[in-house]
Amino acid sequence: MSRILVLIDWYLPGYKAGGPIASVSNLIKALKLKFDFSIITRNTDYCDSIPYENIESDTWIVGNDELRSYYFSTSKLNIISLIKVLKSEKFDYLYINSIYSKYFTIVPLLFLKRSNYKIILAPRGMLSEGAMDVKYFKKHLFLKIGKLVNLFNEVIFQASTEEEKKQIQLVFGNKVKIKIAPNIPKKIENLKKTNVHKVKGKVNFSIVARISPEKNIFYALQLLDGLSGDITFNIYGTVYDDSYWNDCMVLIEKLPDNVKVIYHNSIRPELLGEALAQSDFLLFPTTGENFGHVILESLSVGTPVIISDKTPWRQLEKSSVGWDVSLSDKSIFIEVINNCINMESNEYGEISNSALNYALNYMANSDNLQKHIELFSVS
Questions:
Q1: What is the domain count for the chain?
Q2: Mind listing the pLDDT tens digit for each residue in 241-290?
Q3: Looking at residues 195-216, what average pLDDT do you find?
Q4: What pLDDT is recorded for position 180?
Q5: What is the crossing angle of helices 217-224 and 242-254, to 10°?
Q6: Cross-strand partners of 255
Q7: pTM, full prediction
Q8: How far apart are CA 105 and CA 117, in angstroms?
Q9: At a CB cut-off of 8 Å and minimum separation 6, what does 152 contact?
Q10: How far is CA 246 from CA 213, 242, 265, in A?
Q11: Tell me, what CATH number does 96's domain have?
Q12: Domain limits for position 266
């Protein structure tokens, strides 16, 4: 059984970092009988400073799920301590889940890339156009220096989609080693809406994402400005960029009285399905997702989605489960949103049922598991 050492900045029981935690935890749950996983991470959640309760730090522990884990405390997380732990371990694959992380990407690559370990790096969408536009010069400078010093030369990149493969090649060139292994969806309990009744002229939208420019919450708020109808917009997410959130709050104050915005902070994963089921639509004009776990979860509870065309979820309207719209044309977004506001109950019930069936069919027919088995079998 191959031994895989996973490096990731934030992991369970954390949840505020969103997609990367879900991607890695779903993978480990699905493949733990085929591979021997260990994980090194932090003992705090994303943007938090308080350590997890009831988890011992700075030592190897085995949890109830039998996963062997090492949770670094902030005071002990440094180059010397990390290298000491890494060099004490024997493994076949090093699985890195970031491009820019100092401790969980750069340090391991500098000290271990000439070892006999196979190194797989999952960018997790960090090379998408939308993500690269945030802190543009800093990111491009780092990547340029990384290529000059051959930091990524011994790496096998994991792309979740053909589009992400192109993004990786755009940065690192066509000769770079890439394996495509789409994200594994979690097993979702059937939380089909108990009530699909919708009133014409009234709508409840939700967005679930960390509050930062690449998630495009400000854009979503702009779309609602000036629309008619009784509109509620629920925002779930951790504030990552205070300046960006301040801009959002200024806009929220200026919205007309018929648009009610409710900020719920972050939401625990076990409560997400119920929150999405209580919404009429997911409104998520993201600038880029390499998967978009919340999109699939929304569909899986019968909540149709209004998203950008910067995710793998495309041609949704043909399947009557939602819309994927170009960010360059707000008029189309507004037209779709107006149609949703004025949608009557019978039509909504039909697309809600289509969304549920679409998600269940996707999960039943996904070959993502086999793709990951092949990923960790490369020679």
A1: 2
A2: 999 999 999 999 999 999 999 999 999 998 999 999 999 999 999 999 98
A3: 94
A4: 94
A5: 10
A6: none
A7: 0.90
A8: 15
A9: 109, 121, 146, 172, 176
A10: 12, 6, 14
A11: 3.40.50.2000
A12: 202-364
